[in-house]
């Protein structure tokens, strides 16, 4: 469903992505682990099209998308939930979801004043709100809700585009432990045919949610396999210098 072949990217003398080859099957839930500066976000930026790799190939559902723009990749089913907030504060949660759905459904024109006037958009909003546990919050202004709810909404906005593949950059960062557990539950309840790639620092989440784990270190894939094997890997314990014990 999503594949990279020997993806390479440097910033000046710094090699940030070194020959990264990944292959995610349809419905696979893959967590990317790696210490700060390992190149996780840079890899995501190349996958969605915000950065152009120096060399290598990105395939989405078999099609070479390496030189496609962000919007064109999104139309082919690649969606990203951002670590930074990308919400419209002056709108309600429902309207934020509605706008994302409207644009993805090609109904963006003229819907800015009321994205929820289309029945198809309202249906998508209803389904996505249930998926990210926000059904009770639809009429609330984004300004009025907690940070954790905003993070859930960011995932909802990515889902509202009806993606085949969703990329999430640290969905639980800055979220308290209780809310984080709720996030685990909702991630695990996502449709099984949705392919999910998550950057995560939280080992708990990684081992709880992942079908497979990829570890990046200095821009290189140093582990690619099942969570149980990752848990037992001495090399990974060394990379994380004891962070494993928190898992
Ligand atoms: N636009 C840029 N120009 C120069 N260097 C960059 C740029 N973007 C990232 N880097 C460098 O690339 C390296 C990898 O950064 P990246 O943000 O991808 O790592 P990361 O694994 O996502 O880290 P973190 O876990 O801290 O978010 C870092 O050394 C960073 O300083």
From TrEMBL:
InterPro entries for this protein: AAA+_ATPase, ABC_AA/LPS_Transport, ABC_transporter-like_ATP-bd, P-loop_NTPase
Keywords: ATP-binding, Nucleotide-binding, Transport
Domain ABC transporter: 2-243
A GO cellular component annotation in the UniProt record: plasma membrane
Signal peptide: none
GO terms, molecular function: ATP binding; ATP hydrolysis activity
Pfam families noted in UniProt: ABC_tran
Classification via PANTHER family: ABC TRANSPORTER ATP-BINDING PROTEIN, CONSERVED COMPONENT OF ABC TRANSPORTER FOR NATURAL AMINO ACIDS-RELATED
Protein name: ABC transporter ATP-binding protein
